[in-house]
Amino acid sequence: MAQTKTKPFHAFWLFFPAAALWAAVVVPLSIYAVLSGSGWPPGLLGAGHGHELIFGFALALIAGYTLGPQPWRVLAPLFVLWLVARLCWTLAPESPISQLLSPAFALLLARYAVPRFQAAKKWRNKIAGPLILVLCLLSVAFWITANAPAGFWLALPDTRRVMTAAILGLLLLMTFMGGRMIAPAVAGTLEKRGIPLEARVQPRIEGTLLVILLAAMVLVLIPRADIVTGLALVLSAILILIRALRWKLWHCMNRPDLLVLGIGYVWLAAGAGTTGVYLLQGNNPLPALHVITIGALGTLSISVMLRLAWQRARRTFPPTWQVLAIAVAMAVAVLARLQAGATPFAHPGLLWLSTLCWSTAYGLVAIQLATLFRASQQRRK
């Protein structure tokens, strides 16, 4: 008898719920570890909190969004490696095995995700692959900087700057992929209403943003380049906002899912601009970076997860109440965290408010994704 081949499985059904659950759990546990005085779990103290949200949560999002349908011989090892890396880092971050597992997952993800973008001809279309590779390599850079002996390499940036570069990399990736998702969707919606949209991808603005934000990623690793980095980020914020305004999103009131995607895109401008201003003023950019990681990443990631899941399972767009709730929850979360400032644990009330909004949103999204997955499986039967 001929062997039957197993059908490829969509990576987002596996990685999106896992990423949502991890996002919901990591933040409250990291705050508990500090405020309780227990120091548990140790992997979420200090830089560990950011490590898991960038190299754990965000890379899982990238895996779900970019891998597409894959055979289980690819997905199973990749997912197991991600899961084991998360648990090991959380419980025993100082262990050599724990520190090696995250870079191993990042490199394996790059092995499968990056080649999917190489067929494009224009350099702007090819940038997603190399950018994902850079984000994955920054996980390796974090491991190197965290374990390098004192004085090993005078030019080696510290882990804080590596993580900041990774956040700016996420900013660039969301700017690029968000634009490629929003522009055609808005154009199609407006055409149905007889409203022409001339400014779609806006290649000149997109190309300029790619160059400026790539430069900012490199410059932020250099301690004496904060002023130049700040200027680059402020300029990029202006360009992102101009690009969003030219999409005429106010004509899409009948598509709240697109409006919320647009709000997430505007958060990119707010995050880039706020971070740039902090750097220009010589202040710690940590609060401003949360405008990117909560406002932009939170709004865009949940919007994309729900959008893909609803289209796959129900062939429709997410309900209005869900997308609007996302927008409100992430707005409250980012504003509360921004108000907590550079010494957030001195303002536990604001921290817990931000965490409540963030974790509730991602927890409910994880449940929604599981429900939609069951619906999609029943639809196939």
UniProtKB/TrEMBL annotation:
Q: Which UniProt keywords apply?
A: Membrane, Transmembrane, Transmembrane helix
The reply to whether Transmembrane helix figures as a keyword in the UniProt entry is yes
The region annotated as signal peptide is none
Q: Which Pfam families match?
A: NnrS
TM stretches of this protein = 12-35, 47-67, 74-92, 98-115, 127-156, 162-183, 204-222, 228-246, 258-280, 286-309, 321-338, 350-373
Q: What is this protein called?
A: NnrS family protein
Q: Can you name the source organism? A: Marinobacter panjinensis
